[in-house]
Write a structure and sequence with these properties.
Two copies of one chain form a homodimer.
Chain A lengths: L6 H16 L6 H8 L3 H7 L3 H21 L9 H18 L1 H16 L1 H29 L1 H5 L3 H21 L6 H12 L11
Helix pairs in contact in A: 1-4, 1-6, 4-7, 5-10, 6-7, 9-10
Chain lengths: 203, 203
């Protein structure tokens, strides 16, 4: 992991911007060599190939998102509604500011859907990322959501979390087009308001 | 519009599959010429260029979706909840079966987000399509949703419709990956259940 010259970070920066701008197919290891000014050997010393590099770029994005989530742990005694609302708004703001991050995730989604050999590789990358997110968020969720602790209300809880996750994806898709930042936040709060966090199921 | 040999339809079929498989950038008019076996002149006689062709492909998809919606008009006296639930499930089923249709819409979304000259063209295409959908669905909606008639409850109604539209996009994104057909339908019904269609606001 030692990288005193910051070569790995530099590669990741260049690759991030190329994958976002040109998509997965439109990005080549050669073009990254050219843009970083490194030798081909130096690039391959850090990353075995394009799919490994793309996975590393996405991993760094996910770490950034998790970081902003894990901070939530520090606000002890926070209610479920406020937790979900604020964390969601934070994600919306982060992605609003960062069009490249949105492009990276949509690139992953679309290539996975496209299928073939590359699609399968990217589907595996997506699965691993989701695994990482879940492993890191699980302890936070159990801290904040009482229902996650006793397992009693898993069914409805799980459905609520899934509904909000998919709604978030749909919101992110429209950011900057049919949705500005304030409308996105407002819509998120409106949706949260549909769930009765005080009901017996969610206690 | 006369096209006795079905040349236009043939071009649209080939273009649909190429845009879905290779994306917008990865598809060229030359490759479509090759796959259709037509002359370049014949292709350009029907379509001025790639963006016009892509718009026509998407337009045909939207017409198909609208058709399955407009049928709804025939079920007079249908309640709001049942209308939203069944129409949503129909869309989910349609897209579940048709991976290419999903790819076409995601291609539009991602290229629009990518920006640049092509992004702006595709953003305009997306805007036009949304305009067509809204113009056609508006009379249906006013038939089924009483609140659309008097304009009284527009705010909350609009937010509900938007929330469900974005949730639908998020569901479609995950179809075949973290979501099979039955789970997608179940999630849709669960989300619909969060809205109290019998409340005063929605009367």
């Amino acid at each position: 992991m030692s990288d005193p010259c910051g070569t790995r970070d530099k590669i990741l920066e260049v690759a991030r911007s190329q994958f976002a701008r040109n998509g997965y197919h439109g990005t080549s290891m050669d073009a990254i060599v050219k843009d970083t000014g490194l030798s081909k050997g130096a690039l391959y010393w850090h990353f075995d190939g394009k799919s490994e590099l793309f996975a590393a770029v996405l991993r760094r994005e996910v770490d950034g998102i998790i970081h902003s989530h894990v901070e939530a742990l520090r606000e002890k005694g926070e209610g479920v509604r406020s937790f979900v609302t604020l964390r969601g708004e934070r994600i919306i703001e982060m992605l609003w500011k960062d069009r490249e991050m949105r492009l990276l995730f949509f690139t992953l989604f679309i290539e996975r859907l496209r299928g073939g050999q590359e699609g399968r590789e990217l589907s595996e990358i997506a699965g691993n990322l989701l695994g990482i997110i879940q492993a890191k968020l699980w302890p936070v969720a159990r801290e904040v959501f009482p229902a996650f602790r006793d397992g009693e209300a898993r069914g409805d809880y799980q459905r609520m979390v899934t509904t909000l996750r998919f709604l978030m994806n749909g919101i992110i898709m429209e950011l900057g087009f049919n949705l500005d930042l304030d409308s996105a936040r407002e819509l998120w709060r409106f949706a949260i308001g549909r769930f009765d966090f005080e009901s017996e199921v969610f206690k």
